[in-house]
């Protein structure tokens, strides 16, 4: 036996004890997973971690330890999430977080999530969820999140199949209308190729929404209602296809910021959009300097200037300041020209009317001369 191994033999009972205390899965179906107490977000929680364990079914989810607070079930190979993935018994009363990212999920049944009333965070990022009708099947399940009564965070970044933007928008609208997500605080919808919405009021059924992430989509404008989101504090619109913000858009942001119930400023993330270098872009920058709304990295905002078939990226601040400088210079030149014209016209008038002017001004000159003479005499007498 290798001598180096003898050094670890005294530690073997301790290591076995540690393993036993950490891996408390208590069921053979969960053998690939790690279960135990972990310190997360300043709190000790019971975590079941089944990352990259090769699961192809959700059978193991029906035997989770009763005390589970956090479920991490990522990097596996699931095509469909069947109904009641946690079983029929409502025993997971402590489950607060479900992370099922990167599992290749294509379909979520309408009654997949039952007995999850305490869950506060659901993460389904980087899946391939489809909502299209295929082979006479309809994957449209508007009540898929209807049992998450206490859900505060919903993470759907790159969660849906590609090239489904229009159907996705319709589906999301129906989900928000039919689900009781009144406590939802944060919603992530980045990287889903979204262009538009079935209804401008798509988010209006989420009355507690504070943070809305719509970055890295294909949104062309502010094409949804925001005034219904009275508590909105952060709106991410970066990396979209927005070419301008109209004065109406800016007024809506100001109006939302002025809500009497607001306790913190509205923050916008609007960078990396193909804004056109026009009057709207300059107006946007000037507005950003005066509004109470916070714009992340406002001095780094850029616009696209197309000239002679080429595209140039221009800093919005430089564009506005150079425009103001050109206007100021033009006004200065105009003022000088007007003064020159006035002086010239005055000179011409005086020349043409010199006799009349001389007659009118002579008494004045004589009076001034006499006054000067009297002053001089008085000074000499003194």
Give a verbal description of the structure.
The chain is of the alpha/beta class and 382 residues long. It has 7 helices and 17 strands. It has helices at residues 3-6, 12-22, 165-178, 247-257, 279-290, 316-352, 354-381, and strands at 34-40, 43-49, 70-72, 80-81, 97-99, 107-108, 121-123, 133-134, 137-138, 153-155, 186-188, 211-213, 234-236, 267-269, 294-295, 302-307, 310-315. The strands form 4 sheets. The chain has an 11-stranded mixed sheet with strand order 1-2-3-5-7-10-11-12-13-14-15, with no helix packed on it. Mean pLDDT is 82; it is low at 4-21 and 324-330.
How are the SSEs placed, and which strands pair?
Elements lengths: L2 H4 L5 H11 L11 E7 L2 E7 L20 E3 L7 E2 L15 E3 L7 E2 L12 E3 L9 E2 L2 E2 L14 E3 L9 H14 L7 E3 L22 E3 L20 E3 L10 H11 L9 E3 L9 H12 L3 E2 L6 E6 L2 E6 H37 L1 H28 L1
Helix pairs in contact: 5-6
Q: Strand share of the residues?
A: 15-25%
Principal-axes shape call = elongated
Distance between the termini: 130 Å
Structural class: alpha/beta
Poorly predicted sequence stretches spanning 5 or more consecutive residues: 4-21, 324-330
Task: Compute the number of strand runs.
Answer: 17
Mean of all residue-level pLDDT scores: 82
Radius of gyration over all CA atoms, rounded: 36 Å
Instruction: Give the biggest beta sheet.
Output: 11 strands, mixed
How large is the count of helical segments? Answer: 7
N-to-C SSE string, H for helix and E for strand:
HHEEEEEEEEEEHEEEHEHEEEHH
Helical residue percent band = 25-40%
Strand order of the largest sheet: 1-2-3-5-7-10-11-12-13-14-15
